[in-house]
User: Fold these one by one.
Assistant:
Number 1:
Amino acid sequence: MLSAWDRRNRPPEEGAAAELRGFAVDKTFLSSLKGILLETELDFLRCVSAIIIFLVVSFAAVTSRDGAAIAAFVFGIILVSVFAYDAFKIYRTEMVPRATQGDQQ
C-alpha cells in the first residue's frame, strides 16, 4: 500500500503530474473551429438546460400556494427570462453567423 511518503519520494512525472495528464487542456483544439463550436454549443446547452430546470422547479414551488413559494416562482421566472435572453444572444451572435459562413464557402 502506498503512503504519502512513497508519493513524495517519486519523481514528479510519476506522481501527481502523471495522474492529471488526462485532464490537460489542448489549447490548439480550443482555438480551432471545432473547439470554438464545441464551446458555443456547450454554452447554449447550459442555457437551455437551466431554462428547463428553473421552469420545472418554479412550477413545482408555486403549487404549495405559500408566500415564499410564490416569491420563488417569480424569481424562477425572472431567471428563466435571463437564461432565455442569454441563449438567444448566443444563438444570434455565435451560432448563426458560422452556419451562414459555412454555406457560402
Number 2:
Amino acid sequence: MAEEDIQAKLQNYRTAPFDARFPNSNQTRNCWSNYLDFYRCQKALDAKGVDTAPCDWYKRVFTSICPISWVQKWDDQREEGNFPGKI
C-alpha cells in the first residue's frame, strides 16, 4: 500500500511542494537539503538491501529547484571525493 502511494505521488508530481522548513522565497537551502537527502536515502536503503524508489522524491524536488550547474558541480565533487556535504 505504501509503495503504491509513493508511486502515485511521484507520477502526479509537478514541482517542489511547500516545505515549512524553508518558508522564504530563497530556496537555496531547500535545494541543498534535498540533494543531500536524496543521496543519504540511497545510501541508507542500499545498505539495507531495500528498493531505493522512495528516494526518487528527493531527486525530483532538487532537480526542479536547483540550478543544473550546481547539481553538476556537486556530482563532480562527489566523484572526486571532495564534496563538502555529509552523506
Number 3:
Amino acid sequence: MSSRRSSRSRQSGSSRISDDQISDLVSKLQHLIPELRRHRSDKVSASKVLQETCNYIRNLHREVDDLSDRLSELLASTDDNSAEAAIIRSLLNY
C-alpha cells in the first residue's frame, strides 16, 4: 500500500474519502474548468486538473479585483446621490 493510501486509511472513519470519490471529484472539476473542458475525452492527470483549477481561481480573483477597481473609479466620477451611484455601491457591497 502506498504511503498516501496508508496515511489516508489512518484517518477517522468520518473523514475518509475513497479513491473513487476523489476520481469523481477530479472529473467534476475537469468539467468546470474552461481550459480543461476541451480535454473531456482525454485522460488528464489529477495533478493537472488541480493545477488548472488553482490557476482558474487565481484568474477569477484577478478579474474580480479589476472589476472592483473599475467600479470604484466609476463611482468616484458619479454624483453620490444618483441612481447609477446606488447601483455601483450595491455591486461593490458598500
Number 4:
Amino acid sequence: MEEPEMQLKGKKVTDKFTESVYVLANEPSVALYRLQEHVRRSLPELAQHKADMQRWEEQSQGAIYTVEYACSAVKNLVDSSLYFRSVEGLLKQAISIRDHMNATAQGHR
C-alpha cells in the first residue's frame, strides 16, 4: 500500500473513532448521568442555603414584629398626650383647691 492511501485509511478510521467517541460522550443517558452527578454534588449545599434562608426569615419576622410593636407603643403614647394634659389640668386644679382649703383653714384658726 502506498503512503497516501494508508494515510487516507488512517484518517477515515480516526474520524470514525472520533465520531463514535463524540456520540457516546453526548448520548442522552450520559447527559442524564452528568446531571445526576451535578445534582448529587450540589444538593447538600443548596439544602443548607435553604435552611439558612428559612432561619433568617424567622429572625427577620421576629425583628419586624418587635419594630411594629414598638411603633404601635409610640403611637399610643402620642395619642395619649391628650389624656396626660387632662390629668395635668386636674392635678393643677386639685393643688389649687388644696391650697385654697389650707389658706381657708389657717384663716379660721
